[in-house]
Specification:
single chain, alpha+beta, two-stranded antiparallel ribbon
Length: 75
């Protein structure tokens, strides 16, 4: 789920009040199913490799064993 918008409640006089509340939506509704599904991989091994690459970008100092432990995968 993604936050699509923030809206404020309206009282009976039509004036906004209180904290804004978030409005949630799915990625498919926001950007369209075809766009979201174009990122899907048919091969599980390819998906696993893409996940590793993304995590490695953010945590370049992590060892392979640490990544396996955090992601819950064993080799």
């Amino acid at each position: 789920m993604l936050i699509r918008d923030f809206r404020q409640r309206i009282n009976k006089r039509g004036a906004p009040y209180g904290w804004p509340i978030s409005v949630y939506t799915t990625p498919e509704v926001l950007w369209g199913y075809d766009h979201i599904s174009s990122a899907y991989s048919a091969e599980p091994a390819e998906s696993k490799m893409l996940i590793y690459e993304q995590v490695r970008k953010n945590f370049s100092e992590a060892t392979q064993e640490e990544l396996d432990a955090v992601l819950g995968w064993t080799r």
